Structure formats: C-alpha cells, structure tokens
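Predict structure. Chain length: 698.
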Amino acid sequence: MKLLLTGNIGYITAEFIEEAFPECQILLLGETKLKSNRRKGLSVHPMPKQESEFRDIFKTYDFEGVIYFSNYLSFHGTKEGEMETLRHLLHYYKGNSNSRFLYVTNSESSYDITTGKTLLVRSAEEFCRQYGELHGLSVKILRTSYLYSGIYENDYFFKLFSKAFEKKEIVFEEAPAQEVHFLSLSDLSNLLYKIFDNWNDQEGALQVPKVFHFTFEQLGQKLNELLPAVHIKYLANAAIQNVAANDRVLRNEYGWFPRISLLEDLQEVYETYCEETNHKARKIDVLRDFLNQHKTLLKVAELLITFLLFELLNRAAGNQVQFKMIDLRLVYIVLFGSLYGINYGIAAAGMETLSLLSAYARENVSWTTLFYEPSNWIPFIFYFAVGAICGYIRMKNSDNIKFMTDENKLILDKFLFMREMYQEALRDKRQYKKQILGSRDSFGKIFDITRKLDVIMPQELFLETMHVMEDVLENNTFAFYSVGKNQYFGRLEIASSGMNDVFPKSVRLSDYPEIMEKIKAGEVWANRDLINGYPMYINGIRREGQLVMLIVVKEANGEQLSLYYLNLFKILCGLVETSLLRALDYQEAIENKKYIAGTRILKPEYFKERLDSFHSMREERRGSYVLLKLEYPNMSLAQADEVLQNSVRENDVWGISENEELFIILSQTEQTALPIVLERLENDGFICHEMDAPAGGK
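Prediction complete.
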C-alpha cells in the first residue's frame, strides 16, 4: 500500500512508521527530521510552495491512502494555512480509485465551551466531510488528544523544557483544575494500523476516549519532580473546558483504547529532550544562548566598547608620527558600517563626530569657529558619507547573498524533488511490470491449484490441499477436521508436518458456540481478540447446508492478521470446498463399486488406495494411523461389519485384502491410545493383530 503522510508530521518517527504502516510505501510531505530510505520504502519531500507541485505529486504517485496530521495536534501550536493545504490535497486526490483520506485532528470541536479555535476545528472537519460527499471520497475524521514529543522543536513540551531552563519558570495558560489530554505516539500508531487494516466506507468522526483523568496541577507536580528549581504558575481564572463523553466506537469496532499515560511517560520524554538538545553541555553556554537571543544588545555593546577602545588608542597614539597619517575615527566608522550595515555606520559616524568635537574643544577651538568656517565641515561630512556608503554596501551585499542562497536552495529542492519523482517513476514502472508479469503467473498458479485439487479420493485431496495452502499462505500450522452426520464431533484428518501432536484428535463442536455460530453463517472466524488456546482462523465447508469439514489455522504472524490474508484464506477454502464436494459426490456415485454389497467393507483395490494415502500422510508426518488385522471366529463377514460400524469412529476405514482377510485402518491413532481400542474390539469378539506393512503387500 502506498500512503501519503503530510501536515504536522514533525512528530513522526521511524518507529512510528514501522508500527503503524508495516510493509507500506510512505511519502512524507512536509517538515520532518526523517530522511528518505529507499530500502524501507520511505520518501521525504518538503511541503510544496505552489499548487502545481501538488498536482505533479498526485500525477506521479497513485496513493491508496492520504493521512493529514492537523496543526491542532500540537498544544498551543500554530494554525495557519491548514484549510488551504486540505483543499489542495482533496482536490488532487479526488480522482484516485480506492481513495481513503484520514484527517487526524484534535478533539476541540467536541469541547462544551465554544471558542474561536473550536470553530476553526469544526470548519476544517466539515470541509473534509462535505468535500468527500461531493466527490465520492472515503473520508474519515479521527479526533484525538494532543501529541507530545521530546525531539520535535515545535512541540509544547519541547518548548516548555527549553523555557524552564532559560527562565527557571513555567507558566500554564490553563487553570489548575483543567484536565490534561495528551496521546502517546505508540498508541496512535497502533490505532492507525487498526483503522487502515479494517477500513470501511462508513462516514463520521472517530473519537479517541479520555481515559487518563489528571489535571494541570498534577502535571505541574510531576514537572516539579523533574525540575525542582523551576517555579510553576497557573492562570487561575481560565475557563475549564470538558470534552464530550466517550462513544466507545473505537473500543467496540477496533478493540483499541489508550494505554500509555503522559504522567508515566513524562520522565522518558524529558530524558529524550535532554539527549536531543545535549542539555548538560548547554548549561556551560548560557551566556552564548543569551547573546544569541539579544543580538541587537550585543551589537550596541560592541559599538560602545570599540568606540572607547579607539578613543583610548587615538589619545595614546595620536601624537606619534605613524598614526598622524591614519584617521582612527574613520577606520572605526568603516569597520562598523561594513560589519553591521547603514544604521550602525551612521551611529558610528555620529559618535566619532562627538569625539572630533571633543578634540577641537581640547585644542580651544570653539564651535562657532567650526560652524562659520565651511572647510571645517569636511571631516564631519566624510564621516557620515563613509558610514552611509559602507553600510549601504554591506546591506546590499547581505540582501544579494540572502537572495542567492534562497534561490539556490529553491533550485536544489526542486532538483532533488524532480530526481526523486523520476526515480520513483522508474521504480514504479519496474514494480508494475513485475506485477503484470506476476499476474500471468498468478493465472497459471490458479490453474495449478485447480489441477492439484482435481482428485477424487478425499485423503489424497486432504494431502494436496495441505501442500497448496502451506505454499500459497506461507503457513505451516494447518489442520483439517471432518464433521460427522450428527454434527457433534470434529475428527482430525490431517495436520501440517510436525503439528500432529499439537492438534487434538477430536473436538466437541458444542464447546465452541461462538465459533460455530459464525461458521454456520458462512463466515470465517478470526481470533482478533487473541484468545489464548484458540486457533487464529477457522473456516467451514458445507454440503447441502450441513458442515462436513473444518479448516483450521493454528498460528499466524503479524503480517498474516490483515484483511488481505483473511480474504486469501477464504478464497482457497472456496476452491477446496468445490473440489471436496466433487470428490464426495463421486465417492457416493461409485459406492456400490467400492463396498461389498450390503456392508461398509472396502473391496481390495479400493482399500489399498486408502491405505496408500494414509501411508503417504504418515511419511510426511502429517498424520498417523494404525493398521490392524482382524479375525472374527464367531461371526460372519456381514456381522463383523455391523459390529465395526457401532464400535469405531466414522473416519476409520476397514476392508478386505485379496486373500479375503479383514483389515482396519485406525485414523489418527497413536500407540498410546491403541490398548483402549484393542480392548474394545476384543470385547466385541475380534482377535486383533497389529501390522507394520500395507495390506496390499500381504
């Protein structure tokens, strides 16, 4: 499945993608720290700046699903541009087949107090819903709690920890009694997996329940444990908002509810933040951080300190011959005009003007002399002219450098984007070519499956079916149970190699009413609740409305719990049902030929076939049997047959050899259970001899 994840994706991590979207090709569109990883099917692109770029993306990729993470997922985050981005996504996604759009937003639209923010959230939800109805898009809205992270710089807690270290104070804009609602990324990843694995076309909003009821006051106490020196303040007069009651849809339909509390996870979030920011090393650089945040103050300080140094140097060295050729005041003006621009150049010229006036005053030159003699104006004019010119050149060069840098970055982003799209197009071309070729092979595979299942003996059909299912479904934990006419018991016919001792030889169907109810309704029973001791999948095969066979899958890995795997299992069971019913119909048609007239005793050639099939299953460790030779001194052959019909199970087989000796095959019987069977047969008047070789060889 190819998915587009966009919006507020700074929270997304590699672990989140592996848990939420295993074996999916993911395109991340927006600002994120993740990098493209072709081996894992992950591509990362910056958020498009123009509408044409959105169009090119949806033309290049055929997405099977789009997930938009709202800006409202960040507590006290920015909200600009969300509606426009949603419009672009829905507009260019509406033509895709099998389209699925999930809008993950905050649950503020269900708050009991209406504010400007709740109106914006409701507007975004309504826009997605109406657009989906208008253009036939399958749109779902997931209202969740706020997300949190220790590595995402725009996250609330990342900013909270940063301010706490800088100002030694935390200010909550909420009342102490206001409840806190945050959701962990691990819980969200599990929920998204379940939603996309069980996607349906039902419209409406899914509401994440609020199961952890703690307040900002309790959150503040937890933060005080982590940061004892930090002072915490609250906005006591803030209104307290409550969320709508839990509708239990997520729990009932998806079996999901939040499991991780923020209070329990806060310690780990704090440690992650410290690792991300290297906080221990930054404590030494508090002064540097302060200066970086007050650059204007630093420049002013540099301007004043350097002015004082130049004044001292000018007074100390002004009488020396070497310095009479250099105007240190002009050097100072050129220096700051070139470093910081026109404003600082003019400021430096003004300060040096005062310095020059002070020097004239020390030489008893009055200001009237300076004012009325135009030639004395020349130094002052040059000071301001040089400051302005140097500052202008500096400003112009800075603007040119910034413009070229932005231009180069934009060109580089476009180049990388186009190259990635080209490579993706080539990769998709190879993949589609492989799928087209593979589809031909799949037709051959279906033909091969049909050919293998075209057998008329049930035991041979069981063996071939086992081979086919293990190969196609890549699972080695199958078992087939036959169901008798009384519908009471299921008898084990065959199991996967090595699993013969795992499955019970016989099961009472009435012990599993919930399973049988679903199977009798024609559906596959799946163990979605992971009930201990139960198999993962069970499907039934019916004949004329009655259950005749159960196909059981004991175990399944994480990849085999998907809807795709369930459908594939159901399709194969359908092919098996057709073949089995055809085999049973054929066996009934030749019943008079198989059995000795008036009995259930197989004739020699048919008994040998059945014995060979049992022997093949035992050789492959898919079943077990015991072969007994029976003597019946006080009975006729017909009487012996009548006794056997009442003494043994329906899936046991008996017949005569070419020497007219009576043999019985005890299906799925181990040596440990043999004494019980022998005792029962001997009580019925038989003399039993256990055999090691097939009857046909006698």
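Summary: The chain is about 50% helix and 15% strand.
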